[in-house]
Amino acid sequence: VSTQSTGSYKHEKLHSSTCTVTFHLSFSYCLCTYLSHFKLLQGIKMMNRVLPNLSCSVKVARFVSTPVSTTAPYSTIVPSRKRKTTVLKEMIKSKELSFLMEAHNGLSARIVEETGFKGVWASGLSISAAMGVRDNNEASWTQVLETAEFMSDNTQIPILLDGDTGYGNFNNARRLVRKLEQRGIAGVCIEDKLFPKTNSFIGDNQPLADIDEFSGKIQAMKDAQHDSDFQVVARVEAFIAGWDLAEALKRAEAYRRAGADAVLIHSKRSDHADIEAFMREWGNRHPVVIVPTKYYKTPTEVYRNLGISTVIWANHNVRAAIKAMQQVCQQIFEQESLVNVEKTVVSVNEIFRLQGEDELRIAEEKYLPKQQQLTQTTPHATQSFATLNINLNNPIDPTSANITMNQPRL
Questions:
Q1: Is 135 a known active-site residue?
Q2: For residue range 279-294, what is the model confidence (pLDDT) as tens digits?
Q3: What is the model's pTM?
Q4: Which of 135, 164, 227, 229 is catalytic?
Q5: Residue 176 DSSP SS3
Q6: Residues paired with residue 208 on neighbouring β-strands, in sequence order
Q7: What is the 8-class DSSP label of residue 164?
Q8: For residue range 85-105, what is the model confidence (pLDDT) as tens digits?
Q9: Beta pairing, strands 18-25 & 187-191
Q10: 189 burial level (CB within 10 Å; 0-12, 13-18, 19+)
Q11: Pick from 55, 59, 159, 337: most CB atoms within 10 A?
């Protein structure tokens, strides 16, 4: 038994003497408009008339792990009825290769979604770079959390957060999980290095966390989650730190046993040799995620053939943004003009569109009194104008200038 967004009800032949009518309320979009208490009762009465021999009970389910966004309703993306956590879990568990695209704020996350990507990688490197600080945990975990919240509010697709080392020990990491769930983040990836972390592409032989300590951190994170579909990905840094395949396999297996939903095998080689060697020994025992930033020349089909679960394009949006800003700044600085730049950048109206300005106009029409609507939604018809009266006897005295604002008649 189900209900559609139009408020109509369907029924099928049932073979049980008892059925449960389940109404899934996402509390967003059209469902909350049509599915009122009145129609809920109507549905129950209809069921009792159509199927009088059935005992109908009602279960109302709310998607608690996907909080209602205060900004996302103007998204042009049709929302999935599944929780973001469930979507991410299915991506990771799927036999098909999945992709996550990097974003570092609400705007870039929105662009990732509009492009067609099914998930977002909230990169620690990119978020810290956008703040102008180093990727060494200089940005506090609450600052990262706030950025991730803006990203979640502005999208309907799942976000996997780059959680560095978990920002401390098991206690910090499990608190992180609870806070991410509250903000609608679908999962977090933590790496087996020491706090404060150092970016994997800086230096050599970085010290790694103790396997048992890191395994305990993973277990604490899984125990702390309220949503069973929330994803915890364990990032193995053995190859980054100069260890061999045996160490990478040992760590990955320990983290799998601790409860990690997937393992991320990281490598800074310019080819995929580390990844291929790992997958040959690992098989299909658990989903594997990769970040081919350094071995970018490897054809994507290779990852499919190796049985990789998910590929993360980890930092190219922030790198593209930096390149574009450097070029525009240099051009304006040298030419002292906007003439040759204007055609190379997006219009201001495109910014308004990405911000959801149209939704605000619609909301104002719905919620504001009519007089305020006219003032705020049709500015060209109601613009105020100023009359400047200057005392010519003392033109340089600013106190002698008399400015009066004439309000328009509505």
A1: yes
A2: 999 999 999 999 999 9
A3: 0.73
A4: 135
A5: helix
A6: 193
A7: T
A8: 999 999 999 999 999 999 999
A9: unpaired
A10: buried
A11: 159
